[in-house]
Amino acid sequence: MVYLSNSSIFFWQKYGGYMLIDDTICAITTAKGYGAVGIIRLSGKDARRLASEVYLGQADLLTKASHTITYGYVYDKTKERKIDEAIFLLMDAPRSFTGEDVVEIQSHGGMVVLQEILSLLLRLGARLAQEGEFTKRAFLNGKMDLSQAEAIMDIVDAKTTTALGIAMSQRQGYLTEKIGEFRQKLLMLVAYLQADLDYPEDDIERLSDEAIAEEVTNLLGEIGQLLQTSQRGRLYKDGLKIALLGKPNVGKSSLLNAFLGYERAIVTEVAGTTRDVIVGEMLYQGVVFSFYDMAGIRETSDKVEKIGIDLAKKSLGEVNAILYVVDQTEGFNLEDEAILREVDEHLPIFYLANKVDKAKDKAVELRENIHFVSAHTGEGIEALLDVLYQRLVIENKVIEDFALTNTRHIVLLEEVETLLKNFQDAFGLLSEDILVIDLQGALEKLGLITGETSSEDLLETIFKNFCLGK
Fold first, then answer.
1. How wide is the angle at C-alpha 91 spanned by C-alphas 17 and 110, nearest 5°?
2. Of 329, 258, 342, which Cα lies nearest the Cα of 295?
3. Which conformational region is residue 410 in: left (phi greater than 0), alpha (psi within -120 to 50 degrees), or beta?
4. Region 45-61: what's the mean pLDDT?
5. Is the pTM of this model over 0.90?
6. Cα separation, 315 vs 240, whole angstroms
7. Cα–Cα distances in Å, from 362 out to 44, 70, 324, 381?
8. Whether the predicted pLDDT of 92 surpasses 70
9. Predicted pLDDT at 362
């Protein structure tokens, strides 16, 4: 039996669900490498039969109760040999991750033994799962919506406990609930407008123009509040990307090493040593700081150094902030001004006067956001990190239990916002049959977030980014 939610029936009928999920798939679900335990998952109508064909032990896997664990051996009947000791976890539909019959085989974690078991199951008729196919089946079988499915990879990829908490909120349905509320309000507005169009002379309940305008304004406010969380959300998911920029030999590589606490970049007294963009990451107050050590920007005839400078300029388009480094012993000059003209004027810039251990008189001309540090002694480093955290994290923080992190969701909500603003601007000026088009478009966009109006192409794009075994 196949279990489908109403929102999945569209995919099932249009895209040939029986061809898609009538077979049984399997894959190694634990990460590559060596470990004490490795897991192979089977999902589909033949999961129990296939597991029973490789099982050697006292139980009957075909009749054993669901949600039980059985000890035995994985056995290759053709070669008459035991592959490994294992336990078999039985989970019948619909009470499983995918909503189908699922068997998980837990053996020792070496890649050779796992590949042997996997190869045996494939020879017996299982198909190797595609990237994200277990989660895709869970979506198609109504176990979760699309936004909850996407949250699974965010949980796997989380670099901090805060990012994990945000991903878990989405997995547990916070965004699903908010989108559902938005859709209900839009459906109500569409229903009232459509009723006016279809039954203009009937005595039915109607909304006044003022009430419709107020509903749209309130909805825009709620969507706007949710969108405001995206900056914080992306911050905790992706971290801060900060460029170390300046002339050659001002101590950028030394500062990178000082931030990280170990020798990440080569440091010499020769100007132009850094020829590539070197990235180092550190965790500070629950946020990943990624520092980009770049080639010093200057005019040069050295072809290799020039490539490094071009890469540095290109990388400036990827960062959230700039640490502009000046040698304290030399000061700030016209060459620095020329480099800063390469920087997006909207990027926050923090000026660093490095090598204060060599020039205590602070010879650098005082500028806004200047911080005096020494990569050699560590002076001012901790204070600088705290300033970066306060300015780039705390001041941008929205006090919420949830934040948007997924670019696809953010873009779709921005499109919904635009459609509602178009409706708002045209309300009272255009006829209702034209106005309702914007509301219907907004409904479709919201449905794309949760998967209620998604296409197979969209599903393929999303799930192919999952790791094998998910």
1. 100
2. 342
3. alpha
4. 96
5. no
6. 14
7. 71, 72, 16, 16
8. yes
9. 55
